Amino acid sequence: MRLNDAVIGAFLLLFALAEIGYTATFPKLHGQPFGPDLFPILIGIGLGCCGVVLVVRGLQARARPFSIGASWITLGDWAANPRAVGNFIIVLATLAAHIPISEIIGFPLANISLLFVVLLRLETAWRPAAGLAIAVTVFIHVLFVKLLLVPLPSDPFHIFAPIDDLYAFLRGLIVNPS
Amino acid sequence: MEAFLAALALVFDPFVLGVMLLAAVFGLVVGAIPGVTATLATALLIPVTFFMEPTPAIAVIITTVTTAIFAGDIPGALLRIPGTPASAAYSDEAFALTRKGQAELALGVLLTSSVIGGLVGAVLLALFASSLAEVAFKFSSYEYFWLACLGLSTAVVISSGSAVKGLVSLLIGLFIATIGIDLMAGHPRFTFGSAELSGGVSFIPAMIGMFAVSEVLRFVTTTARGRADAPQQPLRRIFAGVAPVLWRYRLNLGRGGLLGAFTGILPGAGSDIAAWISYGVSKEFSAEQRKYGSGHPEGLVDAGASNNAGVAGAWAPALVFGVPGDSITAIVIGVFYMKGMNPGPTVFQQTPELINAVFISFFVANLMLLPLGYVAIRLSRRLLSAPPHTVMPIVLVFCVVGAFAINNSMFGVIVMLVMGLIAYVMEENGFPVAPTILGVVLGDLLEESFLASMIKSDGDFSGFFSRPIAAALGALTLLVWLSPLLRLWFRRRST
Fold first, then answer.
1. Measuring CA to CA, which residue among B38, B48, B35, B26 is closest to residue B272?
2. Selected residue of A13, A122, A146 to mutate for chain B interface (largest B Cβ count, 10 A)
3. CB contact under 8 A, A95 and B399
4. Do A98 and B216 touch (CB under 8 A)?
5. Which of chain A's residues have a Cβ under 8 Å away from the Cβ of B222?
6. Which of A108, B176, B215, B382 is the most exposed, fewest CB within 10 Å of its CB?
7. Contact, A150 vs A144, CB < 8 A?
8. β-pairing, A2-3 with B180-181?
9. What is the rounded CA–CA span in Å between residue A117 and residue B7?
10. How close is the nearest chain A Cα to the Cα of B495, in Å?
11. Of A3, A27, A46, which is closest to B185 when you measure between CB atoms?
């Protein structure tokens, strides 16, 4: 999705004004003419100036009807392709929902399901998709949960109990070979 | 000498060598998959390095990047699709050789020049970084302020596309850096009552979002599908015929290495820009200019050496001043902070063995590249058959787990998602992402050094030019700022 420079410029200008307005409420450093507000104000001024330049550029582009960026919004090829739009939404949903779903059904099951769905969506056949989803989840479980001790949401169904047992057995062999 | 021996012991530890080997394999695999860049590979590695000691963590990053940058040449030469942007400059040339039935020669020349270029870069890094650190010890807040300004300005000037969009990108990064508790006055800025934002925007999840998530989003919205197959040429005698080519173009090899290392030192200019410059210089000064584009190995020698030398070059400003040379070293600086170390001259004094370990890791990684690169070329048909539509969902779940693992909180995942979307929208609209990253990394240094200098000089701006090095850096920065105007003026004068 390509926006006309004027649209981005106007957004930057509004953002800059809001940022400067909010920053003006910051306190000054004791005995100094500047404080924590100085840099944000300078950044706001910079963004505002760039916003004005982009608005001018965008309006100039609109004056040339066949130039790139002549329309306010140019949707990419993918926006007309329902499959690509679906891919985009599914990827974002997977990212946003992964950990919350994991907290309900546990990381292993959530990861296997979500990875399987995305793989299928991106045209991997269901058998390799299922195999990969399981293999990758086992790898992440061993690497992050067992080796690196990352507290990924725990699994109420204990589906990886055999893997945990195997890991404990192998670890025992390495740590206490006798 | 004592530090060097200690560093040798650190790097030649079986665990460190083992993880370097794994990192080399990882780098070769991901580098050979078009669309998966060396930066993305580094971003994915951070959650794992988070749990390592500093030496293996840094050695893993060095090895991955060194091998990934070369691996990008494989699909470039065989399919005309560069695996990483650093191979884009000469993919056409390498593919032209393949079309002439000389894929073995193309890949052999690229592998050996990558190794030699990488070693040249490592030598220069070892020679210059320590000397620069001696100078950096004399730096005060004035010099650091100008250095940060110079780094940020170069990143904007060098970035592709419009300078205004580069500047917007930089200002977005600087704004993100201001979020959190202000260090001078202790005032919360733009936190809106969120305890998690008080510590600032988590750097690593932001990086994972900007490099990895945006890449995945771009991939899944690409409507073009289908993959070219690697040509059915034998890939066995990879080193046959390479020695005469390298000997004939030995000066190009040295020039590519030097140019790459020095380009890498420039903030914002990494291996990809180094390769473009070297290929351009090679063509410009060649006695056989007409052969370029039709499968001539001369440009491959220059540019192949240059991009691997650029990897090491970019580490010099990162180690000495804490100013990243490219987006990969921006991530490295994040790893340093994660390990409780502030990159800068004090690291050279406090942990000289670690600095020496960085240099040694570069040598080991480049030497590892020769046999492993050979194996990767032999297996290239299998490597290239790894379909990106299967790899990208796996990258996605690693992003989620990685962003979560940094602070063991959902907040990291949210930061990653938001930053990924911002980077995606920015790139769709022609805004380069690298200045944002540099802004996030250098924002604190810029602000702190500015405020400290103002307090020191009692609000007098002339203080910024009161010391010789500060004045020189200041003049250089002003020159970079004025460069667009000067360019315009020269262009008008010539017409």
1. B38
2. A122
3. yes
4. no
5. 78, 84
6. B382
7. yes
8. unpaired
9. 47
10. 24
11. A27
Element (H, E) at A2: strand A2-3
* Separation of alpha carbons B207 and B226, rounded Å: 30
Residue B223 has pLDDT above 80, yes or no: no
Q: Is B181 helix (H, G, I), strand (E, B) or coil?
A: strand
State pLDDT tens for residues A56-80.
Answer: 998 888 877 666 666 777 777 777 7
- In DSSP terms, B181 is beta-bridged to B188
Q: How many CA atoms lie within 13 A of B438 on its CB side?
A: 33
Residues sharing a CB contact under 8 Å with residue B229, sequence separation 6 or more, in sequence order: none
Give A74's strand partners.
Answer: A2
Short-list A52, A25, A94, CA closest to B168:
A52
Q: Are A44 and A23 in contact (CB under 8 A)?
A: yes
| Cβ–Cβ < 8 Å for B49, B60 | yes
Q: What is the pLDDT of residue B5?
A: 87
Give whole-number Cα distances, B86 to B236, B401, B438, in Å. Answer: 25, 28, 19
Residue B465's closest CA among B479, B454, B480, B475? B475
Residues in chain A with CB shorter than 8 Å from the CB of B223 are 77-78, 81, 84
Q: Specify the pLDDT at position B204.
A: 78
Asked if B459 lies within 8 A of A33 by C-beta distance, the reply is yes
Token representation of residue A159: 């589906």
Residues 75-94 of A with CB under 8 A from B: 76-78, 81, 84, 87-88, 90-92, 94
Mean pLDDT to the nearest integer, B64-84? 86
Q: Which of B167, B174, B401 sits opposite A50 (nearest CB)?
A: B167
Q: How far apart are CA B271 and CA B308, in angstroms?
A: 7
Q: What is the mean pLDDT of residues B74-80?
A: 84
Cα–Cα distance, A110 to A56 (Å, whole number): 49
Sequence spans of domains, chain A: 2-74, 78-175
d(CA A128, CA A122): 12
Contact status, residue B30 vs residue B57, Cβ threshold 8 Å: no
What tokens does A92 get?
């974002």
| From A39, A47, A122, residue closest to B220, measured CB to CB | A122
A136 touches chain B (CB under 8 A): yes
ipTM for the whole complex: 0.89
Candidates B430, B392, B451, B373; CA nearest to B183 is B451
**Position A62, amino acid:** R
**Of residues A54, A57, A98, nearest to B400 (C-beta):** A98
pTM for this model (two decimals): 0.81
pLDDT digits (tens, 9 = 90+) for B299-344: 999 999 998 999 999 898 888 888 887 788 888 888 888 777 778 8
Q: Hey, are the CB atoms on A53 and B164 less than 8 Å from each other? A: yes
User: What's the CA gap between B345 and A50, in Å, rounded?
Assistant: 36
Does A27 contact chain B (CB < 8 Å)?
A: yes
The values of phi and psi at residue A2, to 5°, are -105, 125
CA B469, chain centre distance (Å) = 27
